[in-house]
Amino acid sequence: MPYYKLSDSANLKHRLRKLKTFEKIIRFRGMDSSGLVWDSFFDLRGTPNSNAKYTLSALANMSREEYDRVINEFFAKVYYEFYKDNYEWDNDFYDPVILANLGLPPTADLAVIKKKFRELAKKYHPDAGGNSKNFIELIDTYEKLLE
Asked: How far from 79 is each of 19, 25, 33, 53, CA to CA, in Å?
């Protein structure tokens, strides 16, 4: 059952706009706010060529659990960018969006990442009947995480 009804889109838009404001407060503290994570996550207009990950209609049709997962992914990325912009970078933190694409939580450590990589590599390897395109994408993603 959808968490928000499509008829309740005004309430959903209001909540998403609050997330945008919250990100500006966290990351920029009144300074220039170009390059928001929010812009890459949410599209409230339903533009056809939008680079946003989630449209308003997709969010409106999500269950409560799916919606919560999206919001948690959003905040993980916001804090990741905040940390990256404001503190000396430490290799113990990984891009939460890439981790989410691999099906891993934002708190995954190197051992968990390696285990998931091996599992997916076995699944996608061409010698095991997998798709070579998916295997190459997996290797590229793994290399991005380890950079």
From this structure: 13, 12, 15, 18
What Å distances lie between residue 134 and 2, 17, 61, 73, CA to CA? 31, 35, 28, 23
Q: What is the pLDDT along the chain (147 residues), one digit of tens a residue?
A: 555 554 577 888 888 888 888 888 888 775 666 688 888 888 888 766 678 888 888 888 888 888 888 898 898 888 888 877 776 655 556 777 788 888 888 778 888 888 988 898 888 888 888 888 888 888 888 888 777
- Token pair of 12 as six digits: 């959903």
- pTM for the model: 0.60
Does residue 91 fall inside a structural domain? no
Q: Is residue 135 one of the residues assigned to a domain? A: yes
d(CA 136, CA 56): 32
> Are 43 and 100 found together in one domain?
no
Cα gap 66→2, rounded to integer Å: 9
Q: Domains in the chain: how many in total?
A: 2
**Do residues 39 and 16 make contact, with C-beta atoms less than 8 angstroms apart?**
no
Range of the domain at 100: 96-146
Co-location of 78 and 21 in the same domain: yes
